[in-house]
Specification:
- It contains 7 helices and 7 strands; from the N terminus they run E-H-E-H-E-H-E-H-E-H-E-E-H-H.
- By secondary structure, it is of the alpha/beta class.
- It has a 5-stranded parallel beta sheet, with helices on both faces.
- Strand 1, helix 1 and strand 2 form a beta-alpha-beta unit.
- Helix 2 packs parallel to helix 3.
- It is elongated and about 95 Å long.
Length: 213
């Protein structure tokens, strides 16, 4: 799975590229001033007032976080988030909402938004915390999705030798089962004996001891 989402380490960087999608000039100005006053970090804000404009920015630039008002001149409600989410290719998104529309923001969370902020109840500290936590959570979600994709691969048809039990990988090389799973599923192994092998080993040891007498 390929996304343009930033890595987990990006959450704690000192500079951020923010896409602000907000059609209310007063709200946009207030947020830009808060971004400019954040301590110890530098934030560059790209402002879009329409969904089409925001989608164009996503096609041509890289961002760390998107702040999104769901009510825009060319799109309304949850559909706004869904369309931008599709165009954002895994970018963390924070929904901006009013007190009268928190229910829609909660639905956006269920659809993949990382957080929502109520307009008029935000300060600089909360903004920076929301940015970092959104990036961190999106990173975890992407890692989980990658792991699930690997599980799907392992559930498919895998060529395995009937004698030595080696597995043929995508490049045509034959690998030990443990090596294959380590490379493709990120698992580690501990070693021991199952009950059947343990009993078989005891039987062979007993026969060996009996012959040596």
């Amino acid at each position: 799975m390929t996304t343009n989402a930033p890595s987990n380490e990006t959450a704690w960087r000192q500079d951020y590229q923010i896409l602000l999608v907000e059609d209310n000039p007063a709200d946009a100005l207030l947020l830009r001033e808060m971004f400019a006053d954040l301590p110890a970090v530098k934030v560059e804000v790209t402002h879009a007032v329409r969904l089409a404009e925001a989608l164009e920015h996503l096609r041509t630039r890289e961002f760390h976080v998107v702040f999104l008002d769901l009510s825009l001149p060319d799109s309304q409600g949850l559909a706004t988030f869904k369309r931008l989410r599709q165009g954002g290719r895994g970018l963390p998104m924070i929904v901006l909402t009013g007190l009268d529309d928190e229910s829609t923001a909660v639905m956006a969370l269920e659809q993949g938004a990382q957080d929502y902020l109520v307009k008029g109840q935000v300060d600089g500290h909360l903004l920076l915390k929301a940015i970092r936590h959104a990036i961190h959570r999106e990173h975890l979600v992407n890692k989980l999705q990658e792991a699930l994709e690997q599980i799907k691969i392992l559930r498919g048809l895998i060529p395995i030798c009937a004698t030595c039990k080696k597995i043929r990988d995508d490049q045509g090389y034959w690998e030990q089962l443990e090596v294959y799973l380590t490379h493709h599923a990120g698992v580690d192994f501990t070693h021991g004996l199952c009950p059947d092998c343990y009993q078989q080993m005891l039987g062979e040891l007993s026969k060996h001891q009996h012959k040596s007498k």
